[in-house]
Write a structure and sequence with these properties.
The chain is of the alpha/beta class. The protein is built from 14 helices and 13 strands. It is globular, with a radius of gyration of 21 Å.
């Protein structure tokens, strides 16, 4: 039986005995008219405009007119009802605070880490960079409606280390606990990337992926200045996929691309581990979000065995086996991942966090309780409580 089956279950909480749920990964789509309100005065005229047509709604921006894509907002639909383009009114309203909190209550979710689109997919560097700050101000205002339940992630460009540090200071003063970084640093022209995806603007891809082939790499010693600032503030880093971006909207590639987008997150994690970053900054924490966790224990085991044999000629700087850093510094979120749950006691597999991925096409909404019951069958209640709540709180260092 699948979660699309109406007999599967409901989100009613009357018989729920496993305590609160801290959803480690939900999404928030700001209303398109937000940009003209939050961008600086010099950039407001460049904001996107919505055009309502007979077939669907269109986003008009920088000379392009593209239909509203629905793939990331399918909550409440069964798989047979998915649609790729449509109207804004067809999408679930994720940005109205009252409606958002009502959906959390319907699904039995108490608290949530909230990710957003971040910047505009602009080819104008000034507008692109301004949109990071605009989004962060808007999402913090939005989360202020329920600060004990909504924990937004701050976004900033990653094209220059000093520039990013300035953004970290600003975000920390605003109250952000998390900093979203692309899987790889960006180019000096922040929107440019070698990871172009059809149907997506390079600026949007770059915000998530950066440029794997760029001159700037997280292994560079110069990044220690950024890691120190993050540790000083107690802020954690989130990588929300990005090692490889699925070819959204291209049905001939989509299903094969999706699992690879999860597994590709092993590369940035490996870069941090094998370059000794966690030895120099033991308090630094990374969340590999939406990557799934079934591969975590395998990754830790493989790295340990490889490191044992190869560490001498590679002149490895590590003080401990790689699995040590997986257990101390790396967290990961999953949606439906029973193998990951069953490997929770293996090295590298313990810091795992459940998520609903609301309102994306993989979401468990509104049947999250029933799906948790299915995927956690036979798991001790103490472990369930850790994975659906306590581990996320530990990651964020909140009580």
């Amino acid at each position: 039986m699948s979660e699309a089956d109406p007999l599967f279950g409901s989100a009613l909480k009357e018989d729920w005995t496993w305590g609160p749920i801290f959803d480690a990964d939900v999404h928030i789509d700001p209303p398109h008219d937000m940009w003209k309100d939050y961008l600086p005065e010099s950039q407001k005229a460049k904001a996107p405009v919505i055009e309502h047509a007979d077939d669907c709604d269109y986003i008009c921006f920088e000379g392009n007119r593209r239909p509203v894509m629905m793939i990331n907002n399918q909550a409440g639909r069964t798989g047979k009802e998915f649609k790729m383009v449509g109207r804004l009114s067809d999408q679930r309203n994720t940005y109205d605070p009252a409606k958002r909190l009502a959906d959390m209550d319907l699904d039995g979710i108490d608290q949530a880490i909230c990710f957003g689109g971040g910047p505009l997919g602009s080819f104008d560097n000034d507008l692109y960079l301004a949109s990071f700050e605009a989004y962060s101000r808007w999402v913090m205002d939005w989360a202020s409606n329920a600060p004990h339940r909504l924990f937004p992630v701050g976004h900033c460009p990653m094209r220059d280390i000093d520039e990013t540090i300035e953004h970290v200071h600003r975000l920390a003063k605003m109250g952000f606990k998390m900093l979203q970084l692309p899987a790889f640093p960006q180019n000096p022209e922040a929107w440019r990337t070698s990871s172009s995806i059809k149907n997506m603007k390079d600026g949007q891809v770059s915000a998530q992926t950066g440029d794997p082939k760029g001159a700037l790499q997280y292994s560079d010693p110069e990044f220690d200045r950024l890691w120190k600032v993050l540790c000083d503030y107690g802020m954690v880093i989130t990588f929300h996929l990005g090692g490889r971006v699925p070819r959204f909207g291209q049905k001939e590639f989509f299903l094969a691309d999706m699992p690879m987008s999860k597994l590709a997150m092993a590369e940035p994690i490996g870069i941090f581990i094998h370059n000794g970053i966690f030895d120099r900054f033991p308090d630094l924490r990374i969340g590999s979000m939406e990557s799934g966790v079934g591969w975590f224990a395998w990754f830790a085991e493989y790295n340990d065995r490889t490191w044992e044999k190869q560490r001498f000629w590679t002149e490895s700087v590590l003080k401990n086996p790689p699995s040590y850093y997986m257990d101390q510094n790396i967290w990961g979120s999953f949606i439906q991942d029973r193998p990951g749950i069953l490997m929770r006691d293996l090295p590298g597999g313990k810091n795992i966090m459940w998520s609903s991925d609301y309102p994306h096409s993989e979401t468990t909404f509104p049947n999250s309780h029933a799906i948790i019951r299915r995927d956690f069958a036979g798991v001790p209640e103490a472990d369930i409580r850790d994975i659906i709540c306590n581990n996320a709180k530990q990651f964020l260092r909140i009580s």
